[in-house]
Fold this sequence. Notes:
Helix content: under 10%
Largest sheet: 5 strands, mixed
Number of helices: 2
Oligomer: single chain
Amino acid sequence: MSSSKAVATRVSRRITLRIVGSDLPGATCGEFRHVHVGTQCGREPDQVVSADARQALFEIPVEILADPQGALDADFRGPYVQGRPGVRFVYLTWGEQPPGGEFAMFRRIKIFLADLPAELIAASGVLEGTLGLTDDCGLPLCAAVRPPRIAWSAGADG
Length: 158
């Protein structure tokens, strides 16, 4: 079967990734001022929250393409999804954003979608990932985060 036929037989399902970030580093940390964190939609920051907040909550819509039997070799799509098939991910992006100013990204967190537990994808429309957003040096967390640094559970819909 050609790859175009394989894609045509896939079915689509939508889920929401709810990322709950705690332990934010503060709006002033290290050399950074007016620090904010948000999701990255395409190349743009979205759902931006001050790093002084008690908690950051992000909702990221994701489309899952799978074969009709629900095989685990699913692919992920959507405006927040980055990367090539097999290594898809979403970003949380850190930036400085002074009052009335533009968001200037300085680092990102990469959350790999292959790390989503298959049983949670099958059972829930909302997958909740919880993680602390401050690294061991007191700065904004960056680089790839994988379990157990991010813990996934079935979230409540709505």
